[in-house]
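Final paragraph of the annual report: two paired records, presented back to back.
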Amino acid sequence: MYLISLNCNGIRSAMKKGLGEWIAREDPDLLCLQEIKANIDDIDLDFFSELGYTPTIHSAEKKGYSGTAVFSKKKEYRLEVGMGEVETRNEGRIISLFYSKFILVNAYFPSGTTGDTRQEVKMEFLSQMQTYLDKIRKENKNIILCGDVNIAHTELDIHNPKGNIKNSGFLPEEREWVSKFLESGWVDTFRKVHPESKDAYSWWTYRFQAKKSNKGWRIDYFFVTNPLEKKIEDAGIYPEMDFSDHAPVYLKIKLSL
């Protein structure tokens, strides 16, 4: 099974930059998008249907903001949106698809970069996410979590760790959450495949020609629960794809829809 995840920074913008044609060529079994910035009526669903996908769109109440989408090559699944969170429940941040063999969770974590209030929301979201994942894990031990986590976990995952230690996305308490999350029975698939890889990033600010000089952060992930670790075939990043300020990330795993 081949999965692609991308913070598209607006699905309509990404489609104009060639995302649709690229997806048609790559033909993933599951396509997970974050920050779609669109309602269902704004998206050309016929394009995806012609490629064999069943869409799930979870838009934010605020127009042009946040939102997630999953396009699946299989129609049979149970759908859940959200995870019961309060501050972020209207922001379209969580889609979970319950298949017979595994659960897919597509998530867009809050960034926390706009001030103390949003940082508090982010930390609360992290706590709620752990609780939610622990809950659904009782139903099926095989879970794939993907999306824009808005946290660079280690110094390998960011171009300037010392200069960003006080910035949201690399705060000690955020990184500690990722460490404890992994210790609770999860695998960072990219690090499983590329344990010592440096300068492998999935996001670059549009300012200062950051991508040209590769001054980036790895904040987009595919995580799997421990029982799926041996099924990982490959995981990586497509940094050359310029549909957004994020690069698509992918997972290839011995699992079927």
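The closing record of the year follows.
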Amino acid sequence: MNFFDEYKQKLKTPEEAVKAIKSGDWVDYSVGLGFPELLDGALAKRKDELKDVKIRGFLILKPMQAIEADPDREHFMYNSWYMSGYERKLSDKGLANFMPMVFRNLNSYYRRFLTVNVAMMSVAPMDEHGYFSFSLSNPCARSVMDKADYIILEVNEHLPKVHGMDEIIHISEVDAVVEGKHEPLANLPAPPPTEIDEKIGDLILNEMVDGSCVQLGIGGLANCVGQKIAQSDLKDIGIHTELLADAYLDMYKAGKITNRAKTIDNGKSVYGIALGSQGLYDWCAENPSMSTRPIEYCNSPEVISQIDNFVSINNCVNVDLKGQINAESSGTRQISGTGGQLDFLTGAYMSKGGKAFICMTSSFTDKQGNHKSRFVPTFNGDAITDPRSQAYYLVTEYGIANLAGRTDWERCEAMINIAHPDHRDGLIAEAEKLGIWTKTNKR
């Protein structure tokens, strides 16, 4: 069979393809570089024809025309699993809602509970066998497509074909295909590390061994740790992560990434999403050592537990004196999402030799110029990303505190010991009010 004939039969303009969307539908927009820009623009043009179209997506990097064309949300309502900087701005304007989730469960949410009337995402061009690659946006693509009533693929000429698991879809499964010109893939330059990032990075590097398998979050600290590993004497580092960023490319270029010590997926770098530079995308392109997997595999604690010396490194916003961790909100304002932090915190704890580090600066200066501690007595509307019962290693520039198995007064003392010195006495006073500072505690 000539699959290109079938492709031509299903080829439509973006405007023709989005006619499949009806009022009241649930529409999925994918994640990151999978955002269907041309289809979104065509849907925006149908605004006055539609009511109550509910859109899901996450980590969207470009403006969504449908959402911005409807500031009163009479026609389109956007909902995010994890907010990018752009989505955070939409949320601040009242144009985006948040969907709480445990990232490892995302695939099963779709399979078991959610409705997908129309799924549309950007994919790599079809190959001679009739397959499209989900490319760098694979965390839940297969689950969404399997649940969808109608599937529209937007071919992005810049997206690479990648290797992995459940990373492809065949033309026979697709209802419509659209083409068009796209700008080069979005690049997310890593912010330069701060002096505090450097100090935290050094503390973590001292906890790593040859053969460690690394999961990094995103941002300056992750980039800093990657650079420090690249410059270190560590050998045979492995990759198993939800998000592949340029920090890993730095390690690879320095010859640190071999995946030889991995007790599963030996020789493979496993990831769910890739966001970073064009160099990162080129590294993934048709590279058999790079394996994209659904997020239920990448983030599964059961899978992670099988990888010896697993090291998870993530950031948080603040921590209360009982050890509850907030990594996603500023008070009641949602600024990101739970993501996979709790997944990797759980899995790394289960790994033989594994360690999970949640990192933060000890203090910050707010917009009014007030110097504040990131350790707080109690939360006030902040989201709890990691429960106190699963708190493990906390890291600031002043040291590392291991909270696992500790009493409330032991963990309180350990956290205050790594708080900024200017805030320690105040935190002790608050701990006394809470009844978690005893006579045995040090002053």
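The domain at 7-178 is CATH 3.40.1080.10 (Glutaconate Coenzyme A-transferase). This concludes the annual technical report; the extension proposal builds directly on these records.
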